[in-house]
Amino acid sequence: MLQNEYLKRVYEEVQRRDSHEPEFLQAVLEVFESLELVVDKHPEWEKSGLIERFVEPERVVEFRVPWVDDNGNTRVNRGYRVQYNSAIGPYKGGLRFHPSVNLSVIKFLGFEQILKNSLTTLPMGGGKGGSDFDPKGKSDGEVMRFCQSFMTELYRHIGQFTDTPAGDIGVGAREIGYMFGQYKRIVDRFDGGVLTGKGLTFGGSLARTQATGYGLCYFAAEALKHLKGESYEGKTVVVSGSGNVAQYAAEKCTQLGGKVVAMSDSQGYIYDPNGIDLKKLFDIKQRRRARISVYADEVPGSEYHEGCRNIWNVKCDIAMPCASQNEMDAEGAKALIANGCMAVFEGANMPLTPEAIALVQGNGLLYSPGKASNAGGVATSGLEMSQNSIRMSWSFEEVDEKLHGIMKNIYKACYDASVECGRPGDLMVGANVAGFLKVAEAMMAQGVV
Ligand code: NDP
User: Fold this and answer.
1) Does the pTM of the predicted model rise above 0.90?
2) Structural domain for 40, as ranges
3) Pick the catalytic residue: 92, 107, 116, 128?
């Protein structure tokens, strides 16, 4: 429970206004619990209503997205863009296409994005958007028509100096391509920096596809070395999800000497005691866009189990949740602890429930929050924008090296802030405080806006 009167008052007001937004309330409370350690040192924040302004998005856009399916039926989805905070740069954050998308989900993601972007040290504010459209099972033509309709409204709210969306769940290279094409057609300008995650032939950055998963492992390797004197070498790893983040987290941790034995999708998980064959997995997910159960049909010695949440019952040294919010609850955390797991590194945004975080931290496991350990994706989106601005492309190695350096710096910033807060090694406190202080300073300098 919050102790600080100012934070308590603001949180109660958020609860009153947004009682129907559970994910958003969860994200705000987690951040406030960390800010309790610094708020007393800054009486000027309360005077200028800093925290009240920080929790309120600068702008929320909600719109209709009509499109026609392959059978000629008209369908209508709901689109969102939450432009949360532009104190340190233009709004930046992904677009999510998934049936579970609603305003609460987009607000929690946008709120987290403010702190994440601040941690990257790049000049990017926080935003997020998406739709309850489900690309799964849709033809390419249907996805294209949906993306074109979505952009036909969104285009008026974005721009390389105002708001620059990217991908997230359900939005990969295909969707970004269709949206960029429609944006360019409407505005009649090639504004490369307006969307990131673009294809390599039209302004995309090498290593952007890999960046979130690779960055997660760079961060994790740094934390393991510094706080536990350990590495991925010889460790058994469980990675939930099998999308963009999970695939490249699995690839990088395998390169670093770990053995990934389980991965999942929203229906179930696969277990392969020999280590997941990533070439096979990439083929199933990237080329065939098939369910993960196909892996067990085709790889001898592997198993498929229904129910994605049971993946945490698989014994491992390191767990990397890379699917979606609240995918690991107290039961999952207890199973990991009972099996002797040493670390949980979040690849997804807010994948652990508050109860799971308390259990993981309370039992001495190393824990990193997604806003720090998955920041490599948006950091490399920032690098994509830099390349677009200077009209040059860096090599894969150059981008990867910059990403590696950024992740090391994010780890250091989180650790240093945890020490300053009197909680050395608490990377959740470190990430929230380090990310917030920079935004707070910028907001204070810019007056009440
Ligand atoms: P993808 O759409 O590529 O993959 C998502 C994966 O998670 C799929 O395997 C999907 O299974 C599974 N999944 C989705 N929803 C659920 C759910 N409710 N329960 C269980 N599994 C689920 O998305 P990304 O890999 O891009 O994103 C994964 C996470 O990482 C998200 O939290 C995202 O916000 C975060 N993230 C992504 C970044 C990026 O650069 N892409 C950057 C930073 C964070 P199925 O196919 O069955 O739906």
Assistant:
1) yes
2) 5-54
3) 128
CATH number at residue 173: 3.40.50.10860
Nearest ligand 1 atom, CA 241: 9
In what helix (H) or strand (E) does residue 321 lie, and over which residues does it extend?
strand 318-321
DSSP codes joined into one string, 354-389: HHHHHHHHHTT-EEE-HHHHTTHHHHHHHHHHHHHH
User: For the chain, what is the domain count?
Assistant: 3
Please tell me the distance between residue 348's alpha carbon and the centre of ligand 1 in angstroms: 7
Contact of 172 with 204, CB cutoff 8 Å:
no
| C-alpha–C-alpha distance, residues 49 and 116, integer Å | 22
Measured in Å, residue 339 CA sits from the centre of ligand 1 at 25
Q: Under 8 Å CB-to-CB from 160, ≥6 apart: which residues?
A: 90, 191, 192, 193, 194, 385, 388
Question: What is the spatial distance between Cα 78 and Cα 65, in angstroms, rounded to a whole number?
Answer: 6
Q: Three-state DSSP class for 411?
A: helix
- Token pair 């510094």: residue: 226
Q: Which residues contact 47 (CB under 8 A, 6 or more apart)?
A: none
User: Do residue 359 and residue 261 come from a single domain?
Assistant: yes
pLDDT, tens digit, 9 for 90 and up, residues 231-282: 999 999 999 999 999 999 999 999 999 999 999 999 999 999 999 999 999 9
Closest to 220 measured CA to CA, from 34, 413, 372: 372
Long-range contacts of 280-287 (CB under 8 A, 24+ apart): 281/242, 281/247, 281/250, 282/247, 285/242, 285/243, 285/247, 286/247
